[in-house]
Amino acid sequence: MTATDATAPDDLDAMMLDIGARARASARALALTPGPRKDEALKAMATAVRTEAEAILTANAEDVADATAGGADKAFLDRLALTPERIEAIAAGLDVVAGLSDPVGSVLAAWTRPNGLMIERVRVPIGVIGVIYESRPGVTADAGALCIKAGNAAILRGGSESLRSATAIHRALVRGLNEAGLPADAIQLVPTRDRAAVGAMLAGLNGAIDVIVPRGGKGLVARVQAEARVPVFAHLEGICHVYVHAGANLDTAKAVVLNAKMRRTGICGAAETLLVDRAVASTHLQPLVAMLLDAGCAVRGDAAVQAADRRVTAAAAADWSTEYLDAIISAKVVDGIEAAIAHIERYGSHHTDAIITEDFTAAERFLGEVDSAIVLVNASTQFADGGEFGFGAEIGIATGKLHARGPVGVEQLTSFKYKVRGNGQTRP
Amino acid sequence: MTATDATAPDDLDAMMLDIGARARASARALALTPGPRKDEALKAMATAVRTEAEAILTANAEDVADATAGGADKAFLDRLALTPERIEAIAAGLDVVAGLSDPVGSVLAAWTRPNGLMIERVRVPIGVIGVIYESRPGVTADAGALCIKAGNAAILRGGSESLRSATAIHRALVRGLNEAGLPADAIQLVPTRDRAAVGAMLAGLNGAIDVIVPRGGKGLVARVQAEARVPVFAHLEGICHVYVHAGANLDTAKAVVLNAKMRRTGICGAAETLLVDRAVASTHLQPLVAMLLDAGCAVRGDAAVQAADRRVTAAAAADWSTEYLDAIISAKVVDGIEAAIAHIERYGSHHTDAIITEDFTAAERFLGEVDSAIVLVNASTQFADGGEFGFGAEIGIATGKLHARGPVGVEQLTSFKYKVRGNGQTRP
C-alpha cells in the first residue's frame, strides 16, 4: 500500500478495519508463540535495522527536508531527525527488549480449593495494542518491540511528518518477523497521513483494538483520552512536586530538587513545583531558590518565596497547575505536611511526587496519603521511568488507576486468565 | 432527600454531581482507614440490617405491592421480594465480607535497584465505584460492602421498582458507617427513580467515578457498555461451552455436563453449548444427549446430534451464539480439538469454557488456546463464581481483559501505587 495524504472515507474505513482484522488474527498466533521465537524475531529486527540503516536515513532525510520546508521548528526537527547513532540506539533497544524475560505464561498465583480444584492465574497477552505517536520515528521500533514481547499485535500510527522514516523502520521490523516465522501482520504501520485514521483507531476498529497507548504531547493525549472508545494507557501531564519537609536535610534537598527540575526539563517526571515547609523556610528556602536561579531556572513564587530572592517573580494562580516542561518552577511555602499533601492533591496530576525528609513518620505519611502513581522519599522525581524501575523498557507512564499505573513495561501490556484443573468436580 | 420519579434536569445534574463530589471526598478518608475500622463498620451494618429487618420488610412489601399492581411477572417479583430469611442472608453476607482479609496496603512486589532505591508496589483502593443494578434489593448491601472493604466509596443506583427496599437497607448501612466513625457518604444510594441518573453516572459525574459495575441482565449491561465514558467491569453474556474431547471419560463427561447445564440454568456460568468430538460420538453422544433430555433439558442439535435422539430439535444458526439462561442447550459434533477451539472462539463470549478429557496434551492445549477468562478441565463451568474461587464474595464476573478478568472480588476492586524510598538518589 502506498502512503497517501488523504483517502476517500469509505476506502479509509475499509483499510483500517482490514488492518484491525489482520491484527486480531495475528494476535491469536502471537499469543501462542514461545518466548524464544519472539526473541529471535526481535533480534532479527535489530539486525535488519542495522542492515537497512542507509535506507532508513535516506527516508528520514526526505521527511526532514519536507518538515524544514514546511517551517518546522528546531525542537521538532530534532525529534524527527535520525543519525547513524540514533539508528544504532534503535537497534540496541530492540536487543534490550529481546533480552527481557517473557512475561507470558508466568503463573501469578496458584491455589487449590477444598474440593480439589487447582486454580492458576496465568499471564496472557492483552491482544491488540494501538499506539498513536508523533514525530519521533524510533517509537515505531520501541512500541512494536514491546507489544511483540508481551505477545500482542501492534497497530502503529506515527506522525504524518515522519511517515517515510517510520515506513523504513517498519520494513526492517517486518523483515525480522518474517525471518522468525511470525506473522507479518503482528506489527502494522498505518500507511496513510490521513488524520481520520486516528479517529478510526480511537473508535476501536470494530472491537479489534484492546487498548490505545498515545505517545506524544498534551494535545495528542487529550484528544485520545477524550475520544477513545477503548481503554487508554496514558498520562495527560506530569505536574510533579518536590516537598521539602521540616525534617529535610538541606544537602539532600538541594541535590534532589536540582536534579528533579533541571536534569532534563522536558520529561514528564521533571518537577514543576517546589513546596518548602514553613518550619525550615528560614534555613532552606533561600539556598534552594538561589541554587535553582543560579542553574538558569526561572522561579515563580508566592510572597514568601519572592522575599527569599529578588530574582523570583510572582506566581499567578495558573502556575500551580502548569506543566512547564522547561527551566521554570513554581515555588511556595506551605504550613506543614497536611498543607503540602492538600496542595499536591489539588493541583497535581497524580503522576510522581517526592518528599525530602529524615523524619520516618512524615515519610510514611506522605507515601501513604499522596494519591499518585509514584511517590518517592529522598529521591528525584526524574526516576519516573520504566528503565529506572528495572522494567527494561517502557511504552509510557500511566496515571489511570486501572490495570496499568506508573511505568508501562512489558508486564503491563499483559492480561491474565484462570486455568482450572479438576477431576470431575461438579458444583453442589 | 426524598425519592422521586423524575426531577428537573438541572436539579438532577446538580444532585448527581454533588453525590459524586461527596463520594470522592469520602473516598480519600476511606482509603486511609485501617482495616479493623472498616470491618467494624461492616459488622455494625450487619447488626443494623438485623435490627431494622422489620422496617426493611415493610418497605419491601410496598415495592412488591406496586410491582404486582404494575403487572410484574413472577420471576421479577421473586427477585424483588425479601423475606426474613433473605434479610438474614444479607446480614450474613456483610459478616462474610467483614471476615475477608483487607487487600489494601499489601505489598504486591518489592525490589531494590542497583542505586539503592527501594521500590514497592502496594495495593491501594481504586477510589469511587459506581454500581448500577436492577430489582434485587440485596445488591445494595453486597456491593456497598465489597466497595468499602476495598477502601472505595460506592455510588449505588438500584432498580426503580426496588427503591424503597434499597433505601431501607441503605439506611442500615449508613448506620454501620456512622457507628464505626466512617463517612456516611462512603456508601450513597441515588435517591431517585429518574433514569437520567444512570446516564449521569455513565458520564462519570465529572470525573468522580473511576469504574462502573453493572449488575443485571443483558439489556442493562449492553447499555452500560455502550454509553459509559468510564471503565466498566462486566460481562455481557456467558455463552459457556463444554467440549467432550476424544479422550473424555464418559462418567466424568456426564457428571460435568449435567451440572454445567442444569444445576442452575439462569446463571452466567451455566453451559449453553455442548461440543462432542466426532472420535467419541458413537459412544458418548447418545448417553449425554439422552441424559440431558431426561433431566428436562431441550436439546437443539446439528444433524449428528439429531440422529442420536429423536427428541432433539434442529439447531438454527442463531443457537450457537444464544445465551439461553434456561433448560435448553445447543449441541454439535466437532472434528477434533482444533475445530472445538475454533467454534468457541467464534461463538463464545470469552467467559468460561471447559474441556472433558483424560488426555494431558489436549487439556493443556485447551487451557492455553481458549481465550476466555476462565478455562477448566474436567470441572463444571458453574464454578465461575468468586465464592467458588475462594474470593469470599464477588461483585460480578468480568470478560474484559484489562484490570479485572473473571470473578471481581475485593482484590479486583483495588489499584496499586509505587512507593519509592531513597537516601538522596539523583538520576545521572
Automatic annotation (TrEMBL), chains A, B:
GO BP term, example: L-proline biosynthetic process
Principal location class: cytoplasm
The protein's enzyme class: oxidoreductase
UniProt-annotated location(s): Cytoplasm
Annotated Aldehyde dehydrogenase domain residues: 21-290
Pathway: Amino-acid biosynthesis; L-proline biosynthesis; L-glutamate 5-semialdehyde from L-glutamate: step 2/2
Reaction catalysed by this enzyme: L-glutamate 5-semialdehyde + phosphate + NADP(+) = L-glutamyl 5-phosphate + NADPH + H(+)
Signal peptide stretch: none
Keyword Repressor among UniProt keywords: no
InterPro entries: Ald_DH/histidinol_DH (IPR016161), Ald_DH_C (IPR016163), Ald_DH_N (IPR016162), Aldehyde_DH_dom (IPR015590), G-glutamylP_reductase_CS (IPR020593), Glu-5-SA_DH (IPR012134), GPR_dom (IPR000965)
Keyword Methyltransferase: no
Domain of life from the UniProt record: Bacteria
One term of GO molecular function: glutamate-5-semialdehyde dehydrogenase activity
GO terms for cellular component: cytoplasm
UniProtKB keywords: Amino-acid biosynthesis, Cytoplasm, NADP, Oxidoreductase, Proline biosynthesis
Pfam families tied to this protein: Aldedh (PF00171)
EC number in record: 1.2.1.41
Homology family: Belongs to the gamma-glutamyl phosphate reductase family.
Function per UniProt: Catalyzes the NADPH-dependent reduction of L-glutamate 5-phosphate into L-glutamate 5-semialdehyde and phosphate. The product spontaneously undergoes cyclization to form 1-pyrroline-5-carboxylate.
HAMAP family xref list: ProA
The name this protein goes by in its record: Gamma-glutamyl phosphate reductase
